[in-house]
Amino acid sequence: MSIFPTTTQNFKQKIADLKILLDNEKSKRRKDHEEFEYQCKLCREKSKQSESTILMLQKTIADYSKIIEENEKTIYAQKKRIEELEDQVAVLDGRLKKDSTNSSKPPSSDGLKKRTFSTREKSGKKPGGQNGHTGHTLLVNTTEKKIVDHKEGVCPCGGEVAFEEEYQSRSVIDIVVTLSTTEERAYSGTCKVCGKPFHAAFSSEFRAPVQYGNNISTLVALLNEYGNVADQKTADIVSSICGNNINMSAGTVVNIRTRLSGMLDDTVKAIKQKLFESGVLCVDETGVRVNGKLNWVHIFTNDMYTLFEHNSKRSAHCEDEDGILALFTGILVHDHLKSYYKNKIATHSECNQHILRYLEAVIQIQTHKWAKDMTYFLLNSKKRKEELIACGKDSFPQEELAEIERKYISILNEGVKEYQAAIEGKINISRFNDERRLLARLREYKDEHLRFLSDFNAPFGNFAAEQGAHFMKNKTHVSGGFRSAQGADHHMKIASVIASAKKQKINPYTAIKNTFDGLLVFNNT
């Protein structure tokens, strides 16, 4: 039997088997491809979902980023507003802490607040008279004395007392107001030579049929201008003192004041000339109401004289070409009003008494150490100057003066560092403006603030002019102001003479009485 058919048969079988295998493989591949396409489809769907999710997330992130940006802006604005409010609170708190002891505010603004700071150093002495003090007491007037002898009395046992020459004395000093009237009679006659009629003349004091004499006029002026008693009340007091035997009116008080002012023209001119010629002149200004409007009283003073003038403009006295300041060449002491520096020929000296107050404000409000150091520096320098004067010296040794200036600058440098540290990182620094301005002023006007050390003629502060301001304020505290510019002018003249008289130890009553009597008020004017 032949083997080929079998082989062929087997071969065919194998081919059939291979076809089956190939079909199976194709079927498997087709299924795998379908599965792959299905998975790809799923992946594409998932990818689309992911892209959508990503877009949604991106949108969400963008929305949140915008919200965060807006919140950051809001937070920044709120932070800025908080700092502004904190700064305003600090500024207002600083204002509440300021009074006459640490600012330029007048003592009248303190109200019932207790003063807790004074630039005066403690002496260490007990209050009251010191050991060795001669003391003062009421002296007995020996020129006119009424003596009453007491030589009566009965001993407790009932016996009669034999009085001796030994006695104890006590005195009562009092005044007696006596209203007197002097009448002058000017007769008429005829000349024995020519036969013409002649009329005798009255004395200068007798200007009207009836008028008040110089003594009453002096009392009225003293009460009204020095005592600051209102016009009507002055009239009432004088009438009461005279037992109501006169009936003075407020108009009479005004007339007496006007007449006195006119009689003082030459005296005031002399005061002005003396101030112009002085080596040291202290100047200041204070507000006053004239006819309901704000005016300024300008104060010029030295050791001997004081002059008051008023104007509607604060710096008018610095611009007056005929005023004292126009050609003054001495040491001009003031409180840093910039208009004073228009005088280029004077030697300027700034008030350190004011600086001590401003430094106290920095100490209380900012609590910065440099302000304490500067306070001690100024006070110790003033004390050292007084020691040198007591030793007969008229200046500092150059080496010591140079060291003082170096110390002054060193304290200011430390002050700038403290100020810069305090404002670092702060947007609103209004609360530190006063400190910044004070540091700048002390540095720029170093020579003027240390003038009291470089020139012993220059005072430490402008106390003399401040006293003049207080003198004027006493009037405005009572009256509130002046009704007219003319009334203000009258008061300025009279107040100038009274203040100058007090500086020269002249009784104000005597000064006014001499004026009414036509006598000199000051012997050296």
Task: Report a brief summary of the structure.
The chain has 525 residues and is α/β, with parallel strands linked by helices. The protein is built from 15 helices and seven strands. The protein has a domain at 260-516.
User: Number of helix segments?
Assistant: 15
* Order of strands, widest sheet: 5-4-3-6-7
Structural class estimated from helices and strands: alpha/beta
Main beta sheet strand tally, sense and closure: 5 strands, mixed
Count of distinct strands = 7
What spatial form do the alpha-carbon principal axes imply?
elongated
Amount of helix: 40-55%
Q: Could you state the oligomeric state of the chains shown?
A: single chain
Radius of gyration based on Cα positions: 48 Å
State the low-pLDDT regions, or none.
Answer: none
Structure commentary:
- This protein is elongated.
- The protein has a domain at about 260-515.
- Helix 2 packs across helix 4 (about 250-265).
- A hairpin with a 2-residue loop joins strand 3 and strand 4.
- The mean pLDDT is about 85.
- It has helices at about 5-95, 215-225, 230-240, 250-265, 265-275, 315-320, 350-365, 370-390, 400-425, 435-445, 445-450, 450-455, 465-480, 485-505, 510-515; strands at about 190, 195-200, 280-290, 295-300, 305-310, 330-335, 345-350.
- Helices cover about 55% and strands about 10% of the residues.
- The chain has a five-stranded mixed sheet with strand order 5-4-3-6-7. It has a two-stranded antiparallel ribbon with strand order 1-2.
- By secondary structure, it is an alpha/beta fold.
- The N and C termini lie far apart (about 180 Å).
